[in-house]
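Lab meeting minutes (informal)
Scribe: AK
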Amino acid sequence: MAYDEQFAARVRGALAGESEVREVKMFGGLAFMVDGAMAVCVSTGGGALLVRVSPARDAELVRAAGARRAEMGAGRSMGEGWIAVDDAAVAGDGLRSWLDAALEREGRRGEGG
């Protein structure tokens, strides 16, 4: 498969307490849909994790260590709200903070923490 299955299992476990989580193959990886909307996608396409974030926090989050604007092909930005996060940024507790940022977009977490 095109994505890291062990990392996908970590994401799956971290989202286990959320309602209505389903997995869909897309973007060359495995997307995790929460309440019908994509929250994150485990991929090998230029980052360990593709994260969909609130436009209100995009500028802050895209400047975080290990984060950058996601691209759909070289030089083709996916735009505001789409962030690619590298392996180091999702190691340890880093994964939880990125999942929380994605869930904020869905109104499942309070803005800013």
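Next up, CB showed the second protein from the same session:
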Amino acid sequence: MTPELGFTIANSAVLPAWILLMLFPKWIWTRRLVPLAFVVPLSAVYLGLLAANLDSGGGFGSLDQVAALFKNPWVLLGGWIHYLAFDLFAGAWEVRDAQRLDLPHPPVVFCLFLTFMLGPVGLLMYLILRVTKRRRWLLEEGE
């Protein structure tokens, strides 16, 4: 397999999870499948790619070191999978949190789309939606 093929597979693999979150947010299998069948495997692939390429040069101490690290296409793929896993994790949290707070799902879908496409921008939009609807900023689970 090439890094390019891995990129294509990883991008395609997350689409069903995002569809479940957007269209079937209350389905019990959405709650089970998204973390177990998508986030955990993506995280494991990321760990494997990182471990297999530790000697590729570069590091995390400076922007130049990070740039050198990502010159290796396998490390770059790992970085992309890192984004896919964390964005999906954030999207799943948004759905669970919105359900717990009884927020309307259509605006959450918009936030999910932004989380899928732009990661932190979608999370920020969800947090703004949350504050707007709840009139509170607290993020505790029991609020």
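CB comment: Residues 125 and 142 are 22 Å apart (CA to CA).
No objections, moving on.
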